[in-house]
Amino acid sequence: MTFAENEVHLALRVLNTYEGERSDRVHKAVIKLSNGDLHLLACWAGGATQQDVEPLLWFAGATEPGATGKQIFGAQWMNSFYDRNRLASPGDVS
Description:
- The chain is mainly alpha-helical.
- The protein has one domain (5-87).
- Helices cover 64% and strands 0% of the residues.
- The longest helix has 19 residues, at 69-87.
- The chain is globular and about 30 Å long.
- 19% of the residues are buried.
């Protein structure tokens, strides 16, 4: 599979965004949520902010035993949203 250059840049940028324990938590979260899909990894990484990573970590809870229905639905919905926007042409996104 080939990825656009800007997706690779965004996906790799997350590796240098955080430090220490926070870095490990964010990296694990985006990897779990993207399930190995580089486009999704770039989207999740782009959505995490330096000030507040708690929403990202909440979504990542969907991949853990004991996840709530809301977490599972939310993570699946976001991945579907990211996929929809990947497949839409630039003028088609609504």
